[in-house]
Amino acid sequence: MSYSHHTMGSGSRTARRTFEFGRTHVVRPKGKHQATIVWLHGLGDNGSSWSQLLESLPLPNIKWICPTAPTRPVAILGGFPCTSWFDVGELSEDGPEDWEGLDASAAHIANLLSTEPSDVKVGIGGFSMGAAMALYSATAYALGRYGNGNPYPINLRAVVGLSGWLPGSSSNSTELILYYLIAGDDVVPYKYGEKSAHSLSISGFWSVTFKSYEGIGHYTVPKEMDEVCNWLTARLGLEGSR
After folding, report:
1. What is the number of alpha carbons within 13 Å of residue 204 lying toward its C-beta?
2. Is residue 2 predicted with pLDDT exceeding 60?
3. pLDDT confidence of 227, banded at 50, 70, 90?
4. CB 218 within 8 A of CB 188
5. Per DSSP, which regions of the chain are E strands?
6. Burial of 175 (0-12, 13-18, 19+ CB in 10 A)
């Protein structure tokens, strides 16, 4: 699926950016379908690798949707093209944000959730850049709009971010309620995970849980995934997940 966005170039010319998303992998629930979560991979990865891990989790009531990001040049890799939810340079307090790319990916994710049954709770999770994308989607939900001003259409019930950060955390604020689990590691610096959790807390989000695992690399470990399972089971009121 592709999304087109207009950006202003020099003079009065308008440039069109088209984002072609890759294959989406779906893991069907083994039990009663109570929740659907879109899970977002990290930079250079794809939906297939995460679908295999998610299928092994003891969460039979969750349907997992694992999309693949567009392939695009990425500034932090010197312009080398790879799968990426948005363009990203060096992580810093005042680094520029690719709002157009963030909005295009957030709209694609929302579209994946738009056809879920009304009695099914929906959420978004992700790892690394996927975590950043999940948290950006959460702020779009809480504010009721994307960064470009268009209305955000999905009622999110849970957001999980592992080893990630909140894009544009200095400019996001809300007084609505949402749930988060955030973890940091040695690639995405601890301070960015901690700052993201703090930004969410002081902006009115409640039940923000920040976890740090000593010695962990830029990958998930069984203890971390066990906490994710327990957190989702409690927050979403899932039946028979253990």
Report:
1. 10
2. no
3. confident
4. yes
5. 2-8, 14-20, 25-27, 35-40, 62-66, 71-74, 80-83, 121-127, 156-162, 180-184, 208-212
6. exposed
**Residue 131 near residue 163 (C-beta atoms within 8 A):** yes
DSSP letter at 75?
Answer: G
Q: Find the range with the poorest average confidence among 5-9, 45-49, 131-135, 206-210.
A: 5-9
The CA angle 158-36-88, to the nearest 5 degrees, is 65
Residue-level length of the chain? 242
- Residue 43 is predicted with a pLDDT of 93
Give the C-alpha distances (Å, rounded to integers) separating 175 from 140, 172, 197: 12, 11, 15
Burial class (CB in 10 A: 0-12, 13-18, 19+), 188: buried
Cβ burial of 11 (10 Å; 0-12, 13-18, 19+) is exposed
Q: Are 191 and 159 in contact (CB under 8 A)?
A: no
Whether the model clears a pTM of 0.70, i.e. scores above it, the answer is yes
Write the CA distances from 74 to 44, 46, 196, integer angstroms: 10, 16, 23
Query: For 207-223, what is the mean pLDDT?
Result: 58
How far from the centroid of its chain's Cα atoms is residue 112's Cα? Answer: 13
Q: How many CB atoms lie within 10 A of CB 171?
A: 11
